Amino acid sequence: MGQITLPGNPPIAVNLRRSAQARRLSLRLSQIDGRVTLTMPRRLPEREALGFLREKEAWLRSHLEARGEDVRIGPGARLPVEGAEREIRVGTGRAVRLGEGWIEVPGSEDRTAARLQGWLRTLARDRLAEASDRYAFALGRPYTRLTLRDTRSRWGSCTADGALMYSWRLVLAPPEVLGYVAAHEVAHLAEMNHSRAFWAVVERLYGDWRAPRRWLRDEGGALHRYRFGD
């Protein structure tokens, strides 16, 4: 995969991917890392690809602007915790402290991101385990284990043997969004599909799931903008 640059202010780096299966040009902007990828037929000249990019420039720049820049976690940065934005501050003592509009992280500043990420993962596990336990009890089907990852392509999953996996970044989202994802994955313990029967189970466990699902579709990508040194 090569790279070309779309001139302008600022210039936009575009990863060029040639594909034998591609029959036309297609442009993709990753909401996770802001990477722009242009997929093109294998023998199409690059000048045609650049012309296509110029045609899509207004669309591309508007979506890049809407996505916003990545946020490096450290003192002074702002981070949502359970849907409420907080300013990160250097704290005293031994424990991370959460207040109205702020979060204090003790220790040296160069360890702020790592300590805060560890605290968030613990909070995420507590919230997701509580929700998963509650929904699994209501469903009458236990799960076998629960793991957390920093997944880029999905918010959760359920395997055929009843193992649940979630993105720990769900703890950054509003609580109702985290609750919906837990209900969605637990529902797969009964229905390993996305049939009408599956969505009926989700609704029985959670209630009206449409608003949190829409939030994830529209806003969820922004949760990956927060960089903890990775």
TrEMBL record:
Q: Which residues form the YgjP-like metallopeptidase domain?
A: 26-218
Q: What name is this protein filed under?
A: YgjP-like metallopeptidase domain-containing protein
Q: Please give the InterPro entries that the UniProt record associates with this protein.
A: UTP_pyrophosphatase-like, YgjP-like_metallopeptidase
One of its Pfam families is YgjP-like
Look up the domain of life of the source: Bacteria
Q: Which Gene3D superfamilies match?
A: Metalloproteases ('zincins'), catalytic domain
